[in-house]
Design goal:
With about 250 residues, the protein is of the alpha/beta class. It has one domain: P-loop containing nucleotide triphosphate hydrolases (Rossmann fold, 3-Layer(aba) Sandwich), CATH 3.40.50. The chain has a seven-stranded parallel β-sheet with strand order 3-2-4-1-5-6-7, sandwiched between helices. β2, α2 and β3 form a beta-alpha-beta unit. The protein is globular. The protein starts with a strand and ends with a helix. The structure holds adenosine-5'-diphosphate (ADP) and magnesium ion. Magnesium ion binds next to α1.
């Protein structure tokens, strides 16, 4: 099982929105999902209640202790991807989420205030030695174009020292995200051919590539065969099928 923690001490950066968007996009690729909600505001469980289908499962965890014990149990129960949504501010649950995660995602709006506000979150993640990546969210007009265009900041992010810590693409501010959330849908279910759906699917691909790499790098020595396997990593649905068969 892979585990992602959505963390940022600042509220309103898009932790819950991206947790939901990524969960549904991963589910559509064949993953068996659980979203653990460690936020008393209940954004994800409210969304879950508006949903007509059984998946993804959403579980509320009240504190760090519950979270610490629940994550390994999910892995034993056949969940292939857990996404932990955390509250703004700082709590033992945020700390436990970081500790449980293979990858921490830090959503931030592309403003100096938001990026500066991410510093304490980043410090906590680094203290734990956890892999992380920023996701620029709610980008608007010019900033979105600047970010995703060739020769742009987004392309600069492809520089070797940025490639692992800035997730691509940036997610633009669009009503689709809010409308989908209100209807109990993922944005990829709400408007399958829409730009927001396209961005979230591409972001999931980025995250999945990173998780696959981290899992392989974590096992033991990266030999040539593993590097080949990494280069040819099959899509998630095939991996899930392989795992079920094996
Ligand atoms: N890319 C986006 N486009 C439009 N609205 C967004 C986007 N991301 C988040 N929002 C909205 O911003 C607000 C805060 O997002 P939320 O996911 O609840 O943040 P957090 O969980 O970090 O507090 C919500 O009203 C949400 O609908
Ligand atoms: Mg939230």
């Amino acid at each position: 099982m892979h585990t992602i923690a959505m963390v940022s001490r600042k509220g309103g950066t898009g932790k819950s929105t991206l947790a939901i968007g990524l969960a549904v996009a991963a589910m559509e690729e064949g993953h068996k999902l659980c979203v653990l909600e460690a936020d008393p505001l209940g954004t994800v469980s409210n969304w879950r209640r508006r949903r007509a289908t059984a998946e993804p499962s959403v579980e509320v965890v009240h504190d760090g202790y519950a979270l610490y014990h629940r994550v390994p149990a999910l892995a034993r129960g056949g969940i292939t991807l857990t996404i932990i949504d955390t509250a703004g501010g700082w709590s033992d649950a945020s700390r436990a989420a970081i500790a449980a995660a293979d990858l921490c995602l830090i959503p931030a709006r592309p403003s100096p205030a938001d990026i500066e506000a991410a510093a304490p979150t980043l410090a906590a993640i680094r203290q734990d030695g956890k892999p992380f990546a920023f996701v620029l969210n709610q980008t608007q007009g010019r900033s979105a174009r600047l970010y995703n265009k060739a020769g742009s900041l987004g392309q600069t992010a492809a520089a070797p020292d940025m490639v692992d810590v800035l997730a691509l693409p940036a997610i633009a501010l669009r009503n689709d995200h809010q409308d989908a959330l209100g209807l109990g849908l993922g944005v990829t279910e709400y408007a399958r051919a829409g730009k927001s759906a396209e961005e979230i699917r591409a972001l999931w691909q980025w995250v999945w590539g990173r998780l696959t790499f981290l899992a392989l790098a974590d096992t033991d020595v990266l030999d040539a065969a593993k590097l080949d396997a990494l280069a040819a990593a099959p899509p998630a649905n095939q991996q899930v099928a392989l795992r079920a068969a094996g």
